[in-house]
Structure formats: C-alpha cells, structure tokens
Amino acid sequence: MDRKETNMTEPNPWQAPEQPVPAPALPQAGEEQPVTGCSFKDAIILPTIAISWRRLHDADKPGTFMFIVYGLYLIGYIMFFFGLFGAIGGAITGLSNGDASLMSGALGMGSIGLILIVAGLITNIVFMCLPSNPDGARFD
Fold first, then answer.
1. Which has the higher per-residue pLDDT, 36 or 129?
2. Cα–Cα distance between 102 and 85 in angstroms, integer?
3. Which end of the chain has fewer CB atoms < 10 Å from its terminal CB, N or C?
4. What's 28-58 look like in SS3?
C-alpha cells in the first residue's frame, strides 16, 4: 500500500492555531451601536410604561398615576439596598465592638424598603385590574 507522505511544514486543519485568534473590537465611545445593542430600558421598561399608561386611560384615570407605582419602587429599592449595605457594615462593626444596634436599624430600613416594593406591586396590580370605562376615550 502506498501511503501519502505528509509535509510537516503545512498547517494541519485539525490542530489548534499556534497563535490565539484576536477578539473582535468593542465599540468605542461615539460609535454607532447596531440595532441588537439596545438596552433593557429600550426593550422592556419603556413599552411597559406606555402600555400601563394606556391601560389607565382605558379605565378613565390619568396616566400620571403610574408615577405612584414607580415612586414606590424607587424609594423601596433605595431603602432596601441602603439597609442591606448598612446591615453588612453594622455586622462588621458589631463584631469588633459588640454593639449590633447599627445592624438592627439598617435591617429595619431594609424591611421597610421591601414593604414599599410590595406595596408598589400591589398598587400596580390594582391599577391594571380596574374595569374599562368608555369615558376614558377623552384621553384618545
């Protein structure tokens, strides 16, 4: 049987390259991003606000009522995260001097933040479940 001699200087397509393949360049500041580079805000949050606003108009309520919901969310998340980080800091400080009052106060603030977030969720559900009212056509 004849066997074809292989030349060891030719690259073998089944072997990994000796040099790493460079990664594609990331877009620089000021460069236009492709359509697929839209943010979470553009894809989810803005349409949700628009649909909620329209739903409140269908129920003959002003769309600005949504600011109540988003205000509860915003204040709740701020209080929750400050309470969380304060509790971590209070735990670290409490370990060194034996006083856990900072941690307990921060946990209380985080708990109030969670309550506000849940209140925002419940308010949003109530607003979205309001019955339609034909008088809401005045917003059209």
1. 129
2. 11
3. N
4. CCCCCCCHHHCCHHHHHHHHHHHHHHHHHHH
